Amino acid sequence: MIIGIDGLGGSGKTIYARELQQQIGGSMLFHLDDFIHTKKIRYNDEFEEWYGYYHLQWRYDYLIETLLRPMKSGLCVNQTVEFYDKENDCHLRRCIEIPIGTTVIIEGVFLQRSELRQYFDFVIYLDVDKETRLKRVVERDLYIGSEEEITHKYENRYFPAEETYSEKCNPLALADFIQK
């Protein structure tokens, strides 16, 4: 079974996914951020910031080919997989083994996009208001800089992409369960 934990930035996906993993014995947890492109690709200056985040951020094809499609086909996964290393802005290879029958949890934003939704057996959407999410990311995303710099990045990159996602995909309607 493949479970998706979807929600917008700062909604609590990682914490929720970790708690769920503890409740489901033998499950494995992956983060969509393990499958992002390097900065050179996702921060392409030819596009507006929100566009880069929505369209260029993640290696969806790679995630689908290496993990999602094999698992959805009932196959085990036993291979070397590239994971993004944020500190060095590169991909590092790790051996992954996912036996048949393992429950896999994947957390991240935009999981209900058309290219991904079909691979999830169950999606939980964390529905948290924008004000609460912004407050959380200002406390969490200190690597971006000051409160003003964090707010600016969210208002120019993340929030417009999230609005696009909500309009195009209607994640509240697609989710199997909504957690408020």
Describe the protein.
The chain has 180 residues and is of the alpha/beta class. It has one domain (2-179): P-loop containing nucleotide triphosphate hydrolases (Rossmann fold), CATH 3.40.50. Helices cover 43% and strands 22% of the residues. It has helices spanning 13-23, 39-42, 49-56, 60-72, 114-117, 130-140, 147-169, 171-174; strands at residues 2-7, 28-31, 77-85, 90-98, 104-107, 122-126, 177-179. Helix 3 crosses helix 7 (147-169). The two termini are 23 Å apart. Keywords: Kinase, Transferase.
Question: Outline of this structure?
Answer:
The protein has 180 residues and is an alpha/beta fold.
Observed structural traits:
180 residues; two-stranded antiparallel sheet; single chain; alpha/beta
Topology of this protein?
Elements: E1 2-7, H1 13-23, E2 28-31, H2 39-42, H3 49-56, H4 60-72, E3 77-85, E4 90-98, E5 104-107, H5 114-117, E6 122-126, H6 130-140, H7 147-169, H8 171-174, E7 177-179
Parallel strand pairs: 1-5, 1-6, 2-5, 6-7
Antiparallel strand pairs: 3-4
Helix pairs in contact: 3-7, 6-7
Count of beta strands = 7
Low-confidence stretches: none
Overall 3D shape = globular
Number of domains: 1
Largest sheet: 5 strands, parallel
Order of helices and strands: EHEHHHEEEHEHHHE
Q: Write down the overall mean pLDDT.
A: 97
Quickly give the CATH architecture: 3-Layer(aba) Sandwich
Portion in strands: 15-25%
Oligomer: single chain
Strand order of the largest sheet: 2-5-1-6-7
Q: CATH homologous superfamily name?
A: P-loop containing nucleotide triphosphate hydrolases
Report, as a whole number of angstroms, the end-to-end distance. 23 Å
Helix content: 40-55%
CATH top level assignment: Alpha Beta
